[in-house]
Amino acid sequence: MPSQSNRRGHSDDRRPRRYVRRDPPTKKLSAKHEAVALVYFADPEKHGGRAYRTVYPNTTARAAEVAFGRLLRSVAFSTRLAGLQAAASREAELDAAWALREAKQLFDSCRSFNVDDYLTARGQGERAIDLEASPELLARLTELQITSEPNERQRIRIKGPNKYSDGAAILALMARIGGWEAPRKIAPTNTAGQDMTLAELVLGSM
């Protein structure tokens, strides 16, 4: 028996239909709006109107403020600013914190260096350098020299970091990275590289 149809010519299938709600895709920024976002983000004072007028120089100050406020209310623009801030935070953490951690590991490795860690007993009170030490220990060496002469034993010379000079250099590096150094006083000079007198300083500031 043929299936019955309703008056509009559709089948009589009354099974409920599933509707999937799809969020509208985020509209991409135009090239100029992207430029506004970058200028605004790079401005320490975060002056929106000024950032807008940098990209649109023919806009009045009032119109630029209104236009930038409208941009801030758009999802695409606010999302872009949030992405720039997140990226800057990640980079700042990587540059400072990562460098300090690496320098601290170098400092600890330098201070804990001990030649006895590379020596092994050979009998009759003799000790020899163990070339099968762990890769971590061998990586800490600054010099590894092996010489061999006929009818003679191999001569092995090893050298590690200096606990004092190398350690002090690493600490100085950490101080520069972390901003721990005291401000340096720099004497003002003129274009010829000569020290400036008080009169020249006063005249140059006017």
Radius of gyration: 35 Å
Label the overall shape.
Answer: elongated
Going across the major beta sheet, what is the strand order? Answer: 1-2
First-residue to last-residue Cα separation:
104 Å
Low-confidence stretches: 19-25
What class do helices, strands and sheet pairing give? mainly alpha
Describe the structure.
- The chain is mainly alpha-helical and 206 residues long.
- Among the domains are: 31-73, no CATH class; 110-178, no CATH class.
- The chain is built from 7 helices and 4 strands, in the order ααααββαββαα.
- The chain has helices at 31-42, 48-55, 61-72, 75-111, 135-139, 165-178, 198-205, and strands spanning 119-123, 126-129, 143-147, 155-159.
- The strands form 2 sheets. A two-stranded antiparallel sheet has the order 1-2. The protein has a two-stranded antiparallel ribbon with strand order 3-4.
- A hairpin with a 2-residue loop joins strand 1 and strand 2.
- Helix 1 (31-42) crosses helix 2 (48-55), helix 1 crosses helix 4 and helix 2 packs across helix 3.
- Residues 19-25 have low confidence and may be disordered.
